[in-house]
Amino acid sequence: MWLLMQELKKDRFLMAKNVRVLIVEDHDMARMGLSVILSNNPNIKIAWMCADGQEGVDKALELTPDVVVMDIGLPTIDGIEATKRIKAAKPDIKVLMYTSREGDDDIFDSFQAGADGYITKGATSEQTVSAVIAVSEGAGWLDPAIAKVVLTNIRRGSEYTERRGEINYKLGKNLYGLTEREMEVLALIVDGLTNPQIAEKLVITISTTKTHVHSILQKLYVTSRSKAISMAMKEGLV
Predict the structure, then answer these.
(1) Statement: residue 175 has pLDDT above 80
(2) Which residues contact 141 (CB under 8 A, 6 or more apart)?
(3) What angle do CA 52, 83, 132 make, to 5 degrees?
(4) Domain contains 172
């Protein structure tokens, strides 16, 4: 499903223009290699590169890039804390975690910090470029290599019960481009509410409700409410 989503979005990604990127990576070779990969795409411009978390925060707030590509293991402050600070000050800046870490805690903590995507350093050059452009467009990105880890742990049960609400919202918003209101509507659809019932519950018009439902179906790439419910349950979105 994730690969299908990327194919469906591919044309839009290729249309992106002038994505300004700040790279925060402490290893010199990795930083330069990433710079070369991204610079080879004419739609991406490297705004700045730095090697520690605090400088990354400072430069992000100074330069306001479209995307910050953020390692996790950084000097001064780690990438997760740096992401929190950037998002707290300028939430419109997109942050793509770029790391060799594939542990579930790092993944969940990154999304809780406000990350808009997560890609591993083992990803191909094409995947890395696509991830940067995707998050710049607000579509989000989750590396296929770790998607199974995320979904497995979301379904694990009591160990993650307290975290599910926050994580499910972030995943739904990032992976499928759902808005906060659409996430609310989706949850009510799963609960079995009709359009009039949803409208009454959220204090919106039936026409607005229908618009939200139509948008949800499009973003989930399904053609009916029942399929949307199945998708939401399967992907752990509610």
Answers:
(1) no
(2) 96, 116, 117, 118, 119, 130, 131, 134, 135, 174
(3) 90
(4) no
Neighbours of 44 (CB within 10 A): 23
The amino acid at 32: M
Distance CA 120, CA 101 (A): 7
Of residues 36, 103, 109, the one with CA closest to residue 79:
109
User: pLDDT per residue over 91-149, tens digit each?
Assistant: 999 999 999 887 777 888 888 888 989 999 999 999 999 999 989 988 778 887 777 66
Q: What are phi and psi of 223, to 5 degrees?
A: -115, 0
For residue 165, being part of any structural domain is answered with no
Pairing of strands 19-24, 94-99: unpaired
Structure tokens at 221: 């790439």
Domain range for 228: 178-234
Closest CA relative to residue 68, chosen from 159, 80, 194 = 80
For residues 15 and 29, the model is more confident at 29
pLDDT(8) > 50: no
- Same-domain check for residues 197 and 99: no
DSSP conformation letters of 107-160: HHHHHHHT-SEEEETTS-HHHHHHHHHHHHTT--EE-HHHHHHHHHHHTT-GGG
